[in-house]
Amino acid sequence: MHIDLNGVKYIAKLACLELDEEELSTTLERLEAVLDLCDKLESYKEDLSDVPAHLTYLINSWDEDSVEKSLSRDDALKNSSNTRSGLFMVPKIID
User: Which of 8, 61, 70, 79 is 20 to 30 Å from 90 at the Cα level?
Assistant: First the structure.
């Protein structure tokens, strides 16, 4: 797989990155190294169709669900500096 400088500029634009010429060339070199490594790994690919997808033989490794007593609303809100009608109040954030 190959990438050129225009590809790096496009990726930087998608990521909202402003890169100068030196950063673009450094990023190009690094991306080419990563893509070369991916190509090498692809060449080692074997037919793994007979390998089970789930290698552990546990049926269920999770703990059993159980109902436990939790915090009351008053206990949860008691250390909050700003509450209203039993709810946490947080600053409005607009991007």
Answer: 70
